[in-house]
Amino acid sequence: MIKIHGVPLSQAVRAVLWVLFNKELPFELVLTVPGSKAENGTRHPDYLNKFPNGTIPALEDPQTGFLLAESHAIMCYLCNKYEWVDLYPKGHEERAKIDDFLHYHHRNIKEASLAYFAPMARPDLGLTDDVINMAKRLFKNGLNALENQWLKKNNYICGDKATIADMAAYVEVGQLQSQFTNLFNFEPFPNINRWLERMTQMKGHDDVHLVLSELGNINITPPVMEDLMGANIKGFKHISNKINGFSI
Ligand SMILES: N[C@@H](CCC(=O)N[C@@H](CS)C(=O)NCC(=O)O)C(=O)O
User: Fold this and answer.
1) Cβ of 54 less than 6 Å from ligand 1
2) Which of 33, 55, 59 most suits a substitution to test ligand 1, by most atoms within 8 Å of the C-beta?
3) Residues 230, 160: one domain?
4) 41 lines ligand 1 (CB under 6 A)
5) Are residues 184 and 144 in the same domain?
6) What is the mean pLDDT of each run of 10 residues along the chain (248 residues)?
7) Is residue 40 located within the same domain as residue 130?
């Protein structure tokens, strides 16, 4: 059984967990704390030895010894290995468009976390106003690209079906919705609003986002460490219990 290292509050971890939940592939979630030098942390020498970038999520296959980091690389690998061609279609052009979005994502859509989530939830990062404002600008560019281009003609980012491009984008954009952290008003973005609603119907959505329901609205009052840990533990327990029901 493969292991996934991470915590459910991490956006990139949620994207990988969602793919696994969508396909009900059994796996073990190993709680690994980002930025920590403790034994279960991403800065521990043993973890860095396996995963030089020191980030979550990371995949470990104890049977083969295969190790892989980077959420998008992990999602592509899983879809390739198990032939989940609905989430990552095989046609060269279709696949290339998904890759296009996945590469674009990192400096635009991903900035949702730096612009809105981290300033409230991760004061320990000491983000300056300059960094936050730059992230807000890049995220706005990403939202405009979604609203006016990617989601203008189609229900999903790369066509009429949800793919890993949608899952990668949703974990960033979706976390800010009013039913979760309530950190962004999507009213001026009707195409994105409709897409968010469609994505909430996708299998596995509720399971991997339970952590955000537990964390709740952080718009006014920033969460303290106990809130973050409590949400992560509840999310972890829910996920681990649910995996037990997946057949091998
Ligand atoms: N590009 C990476 C980003 C993952 C990422 O930013 N992970 C954060 C947690 S959300 C992390 O592991 N941080 C650890 C650290 O910076 O020490 C991916 O998509 O997997």
Assistant:
1) yes
2) 55
3) no
4) no
5) yes
6) 97 98 97 96 98 98 98 98 98 97 96 97 92 98 97 96 98 98 97 98 98 96 95 97 86
7) no
Structurally, the chain folds into a number of domains equal to 2
In a domain, 215, yes or no: no
Q: 55 CA to middle of ligand 1, Å? A: 4
**66 found inside a domain:** yes
Q: How many CB atoms lie within 10 A of CB 98?
A: 24
Q: Residue 65 is part of which domain span?
A: 2-84+225-243
